[in-house]
Amino acid sequence: MKNFKKIRYQKYYVTDENGKHTQVSREVCLAQPESPTKDNPYKQRWYYDIEAGYIVRLARTKANEDIHRFNGTSIKKEERYRDNKFSCIWKGKKTAKCDQDCNRCNRKNTSRTVELDKTWTNDDSDTNSLFTPTDETQNILEDLEDKELMTAILQAYGQLPFEDKLLFNCLIEKKAKKDIAHLLGLKSVDGVRYRELELRKKLLKNKDLKNILRK
Questions:
Q1: What is the pLDDT of residues 109-132, one digit of tens each?
Q2: Range 139-215: architecture per CATH
Q3: Is the whole model's pTM more than 0.85, yes or no?
């Protein structure tokens, strides 16, 4: 897994043992880790959210150890997905189409996916083109509305505190409520349901999102 501490984030936070988070400088957030002790055997951990652009220095508690583990699993899953998605289809295969010299490879369109918004070049031509398939069933208005909705959701998500973003991510991944309760340090699934309702209220405070959902 990459060293995510080297990335430049937009915001840096620290949390205390009660889960309260405070925005701090990069230096404070990434200061030398505290060493485990007999009274507190847990290691120093961090929570990374690359897309949202923030990193959190977690308090050394059992609950945060679980949050760290959940965060690491999600990141590794995303890395494996990307590695597989863009991996070369010829690598490691005996074929006349590839000499297996990856360092000097100049072949076109040999990954497992073709990005339709990228240019491609015909081997017999110097002309670059964009591949745009025609979809007669495409509803442009619906696509615009979906894009508008996604933009509003991301904007509302960016305004949420750390704990609510964690809950939001758990709900998106369809985690079991008992697992969410454990991650958030809640005593029961009823606490998760309450937090879900509170999260919905916070999201709907975003005027753009509220107006789109009312259409």
A1: 555 554 444 444 444 444 444 444
A2: Orthogonal Bundle (1.10)
A3: no
